[in-house]
Amino acid sequence: MNRTEFIFATAIILFVAFVLGWFASWLIHRFTRVSQSEMGELDKMAQALHEAEETRDQAITYLQQREAEMTNQLSQSEAELRAAMDGLRAARHEAEELRTYIERVNAG
Length: 108
Prior knowledge:
Order of helices and strands: HH
Strand content: under 5%
Helix content: over 70%
Radius of gyration: 44 Å
Structural class: mainly alpha
């Protein structure tokens, strides 16, 4: 094989490789191309996803508001409990003072 034959053989091999690569690329592109019906389905899915995200955001907002309300209600209940406990403590102290006073009056 002389130099000219080698160059032609190399050129033919490279050309065949190029054609096979181009054909494989075209074939892959042909099979992976998105059809119009698939685009419609993707649009529907995107719309559904958008609506789901809006619903999620609304739910999160509602839960945050509800949590704030419940926290406020809990704080109020704790304040009422403390006030009731203070009142009970004062009533017990007063009852004990009255009991002591009655015992002193009865004793002497």
